[in-house]
Amino acid sequence: MEKRERRLISGGGFYVDDIELPNMAHCTFVGSPYAHAKIKSIDVSRALRVAGVLDIITGKEVVKLMDPLPATSNYAVIGWHWRTPKVYPLAADKVRYQGEPVAAIIAEHPYIARDAADLIDIEYEPLPPVIDVNEAMQPGSPLVYEEWEDNIQVHIEFNFGDVDAAFEEADRILKVS
């Protein structure tokens, strides 16, 4: 067994979470318990009174402070019309997946941040989730992004030759059902 392995399995490992620097702060996120819901209100007043809490940021504050996150890809260069939603690091008005962060607590210690997170009162209005991709594409399906008329982010057609001719020339055809 190598020295490094012995150190790790005997509890002598050193990880990023073990780093303590002067004046260091810690952040904990509060995630939505719902897969799809409107955020009706967030009350952070009790959590802000916890000793050691430095600040709490909600999605509404993030929207005022920054532009939406940039798109990670630009498909327009290859001719695709790819809709990119306006998303922020914290949900402001609506959550679109279970666990989506709605508040960030900054505190002197991670345990303080976690305790404060439990004191944040969030009122949600649950919305029907769509968990099947085919259902999501149907007219009248609940919209993930209200500014879109449907849930289809991109429609792409690939045309690569004559499929029927390729099957006719194939040595074997395998059907899977």
Task: Explain what this protein looks like in three dimensions.
The protein is an alpha+beta fold and 177 residues long. The protein has helices at 3-9, 45-48, 59-65, 110-117, 133-136, 163-169, and strands at 26-31, 37-43, 53-58, 94-95, 101-107, 121-126. The radius of gyration is 24 Å and the shape is extended. 15% of the residues are buried. The model has no long low-confidence stretch (mean pLDDT 90).
List the helices and strands and how they pair.
Blueprint (H helix, E strand, L loop, with lengths): L2 H7 L16 E6 L5 E7 L1 H4 L4 E6 H7 L28 E2 L5 E7 L2 H8 L3 E6 L6 H4 L26 H7 L8
Antiparallel strand pairs: 1-5, 2-4, 2-6, 3-5
Describe this structure in a few short sentences:
With 177 residues, this protein is of the alpha+beta class. The protein contains six helices and six strands, in the order αββαβαββαβαα. The strands form two sheets. It has a three-stranded antiparallel β-sheet with strand order 1-5-3. Strands 4-2-6 form a three-stranded antiparallel β-sheet, with no helix packed on it.
Could you list some keywords that capture this structure?
single chain; 177 residues; alpha+beta; Aldehyde Oxidoreductase, domain 3; three-stranded antiparallel beta sheet; 6 helices; 6 strands; 19% strand
